[in-house]
Amino acid sequence: MSARATPAWIETTLIPVLTDPARITAMSARASATGTPDAGDVLARHVLTTIAERRGSA
């Protein structure tokens, strides 16, 4: 995982994006148009891995 994908970044940047349905729809359409239709799945796996790692170290 990128050093920039810290728990703080997830909380302050990623979660607001993930809770904005209009933005998600627009991002999904752009990702699909670029030939990367599974980009959301890849990002979700990274987020879930980060959460699991944080819980394991708590």
> For the residues shown, what is the average pLDDT?
81
Question: Total number of helical segments?
Answer: 3
Residues in β-strands, percent: under 5%
- Count of DSSP strands: 0
Q: Flag low-confidence runs.
A: none
Global shape: globular
Backbone structural class: mainly alpha
Distance between the termini: 19 Å
Task: Specify Rg, calculated over alpha carbons.
Answer: 13 Å
Largest sheet: none
Succession of helices and strands: HHH
**How much helicity do the residues have?**
over 70%
Précis, in short:
Helices cover 76% and strands 0% of the residues. With 58 residues, the chain is mainly α.
Can you put this structure into words, describing what you see?
This protein is mainly α. Helices cover 76% and strands 0% of the residues. The protein has three helices and no strands. The radius of gyration is 13 Å and the shape is globular. It starts with 6 loop residues before the first helix and ends with a helix.
Topology:
Elements: H1 7-18, H2 21-33, H3 39-57
Protein traits:
about 0% strand; mainly alpha
